[in-house]
Design brief:
Elements (H helix, E strand, L loop, with lengths): L8 E4 L6 E6 L7 H15 L8 E5 L4 H6 L21 H14 L3 E8 L6 E3 L5 H9 L4 E4 L1 H5 L7 H7 L3 E9 L4 H16 L14 E10 L4 E3 L7 E2 L4 E5 L4 E3 L4 E4 L10 E10 L2
Parallel strand pairs: 2-3, 2-4, 4-7, 5-6, 6-8
Antiparallel strand pairs: 1-3, 5-7, 8-14, 9-11, 10-13, 11-12, 13-14
Helix pairs in contact: 1-7
């Protein structure tokens, strides 16, 4: 089994303050976070950015083999196995054993992702402690998702957010836009800088994001067999009873209530999440 070492870069001010962890490419085909991190690490290295208090650790590429192959994962979804594995039996489990201690040893983790479908950036506030909620307010991201924990509570899956929560730490995950959208790198960079400014790690002031909305995710639709999604876009509206997918066996997947489509994945494999459905609970 292939094993790789996860590479990290730390900058410590030597002054008491928060410890912040920034993660990129948990999924190998989601490279905006990696690109933004590499740019900011270079600025720390050349002195353009200087740590004023606390410390920050960057992991540009959390899934090296998948990153090189430009695919989501090698064996399993790394963001479903983020726990310590006594006997790791797949590539991502070995990676998790390196990343989990980093999450546990930092006060806050910012995990940067991108999505397959078109749409604006958004942040996951799975565990709304004050630190995470306050950071969501200043990231510059205009949509905040809640409800993910409830959808996955019976699966046994562990994300970076779950891992941080279990360790008594705070965390926010940001989906910075579509995979290939160059603006997703700008979003990731802004999120990093705003987070570091919030903690006073670097110089600068943050302000509350204007016109922010909250969406509560309620339904997780897994692709149970071969079929096709209807032409749905991220954040498009659906009505109760509307057909959202057609299976090759003739079955239809129906929206259980009025709401909005979240992160439709048209190329999902059987067993993968196909899309989510949610409701806007606080409009912009």
């Amino acid at each position: 089994m292939q094993q790789d070492q996860v590479v990290s870069y730390s900058f410590d001010s030597g002054v008491v303050g928060a410890s912040v962890l920034i993660l990129g490419a948990i999924h190998g085909n989601e490279k905006c976070g990696s690109n933004a991190i590499e740019k900011i690490v270079a600025q720390f290295n050349d002195g353009t950015l200087k740590p004023l208090k606390g410390k920050v650790t960057f992991v540009p590429i959390c899934n090296p083999a998948a990153y090189k192959a430009h695919q989501r994962y090698m064996d399993v979804n790394l963001n479903r196995v983020m726990k310590l594995h006594d006997a790791p039996d797949n590539y991502e489990a070995h990676l998790a054993n390196q990343i989990v201690p980093l999450i546990a040893s930092h006060d806050f983790t910012l995990d940067l992702h991108s999505i397959h479908s078109k749409g604006a950036s958004f942040a996951f506030l799975d565990y709304p402690n004050k630190m995470a909620a306050d950071i969501c307010d200043v990231l510059g991201v205009k949509t905040i998702f809640t409800g993910w924990v409830e959808m996955y509570e019976d699966t046994g899956d562990m994300t970076t957010l779950d891992c941080a929560h279990k360790s008594g730490k705070a965390s926010v995950t940001v989906e910075c836009g579509q995979h290939e959208d160059p603006d997703s790198v700008k979003v990731a960079e802004e999120c990093i800088l705003n987070t570091l400014q919030y903690f006073g790690t670097i110089a600068g002031q943050v302000s509350k994001t204007a016109d922010c909305q909250t969406v509560h995710a309620k339904h997780r639709i897994v692709k149970s067999s071969e079929g096709a999604l209807r032409p749905l876009e991220h954040m498009s509206s659906v009505k109760s009873g509307e057909i959202i997918a057609d299976l090759d066996n003739g079955e239809k997947i129906i929206a259980p209530e009025d709401g909005v489509v979240l992160i439709p994945f048209k190329e999902a494999q059987v067993g993968d999440e196909w899309l989510y459905l949610g409701q806007i609970i606080k409009a912009a």
